[in-house]
Predict the structure of Ribosomal RNA large subunit methyltransferase H.
Amino acid sequence: MKARLVAVGERPPGWVAEGFGEYRKRLSHWLPLELVEITPGLRGKGRDAARATFDEGQRVLAALPRDLHVVALDGRGRAWDSEALSKRLEHWRGQGRDLAFLVGGPAAPPDEVLARADETWSLGPLTLPHMLVRLVLAEQLYRAAALLANHPYHRA
């Protein structure tokens, strides 16, 4: 099984890219993780924010092959602790399909994107910068995979 992180935004800060790269490398044996960056919609003075969000959503949907199990990160989604996420990862593996995780832009994901998702995942009630979500997601996937492999990384 492989995973794809489809994220709105380009050029993360160096510390985010470095941290994401480290967890991506660690995950490579258990769950290869590809990053697909989506160009953000144009926002600002005189721009239509709804149009920008719609355009982002269309680019996100275009980056998703049909046969993926899609998990959208959304504050209204289900929150899992580390053990529950590892069980979820085990469930996803049992489905025999590759995964895609979606991280939207500055606005909530458009309805079309949420409709494409098979499920939604919340990282909790905090509002996090979208670039930081990439790093948190990669670390949590690594932790879940490590739990399944009885690796000592997770010490509860």
In short: The radius of gyration is 15 Å. The CA atoms of residues 19 and 135 lie 6 Å apart. Helices lie at 14-27, 49-62, 82-95, 111-116, 130-148. The chain has a mean pLDDT of 90.
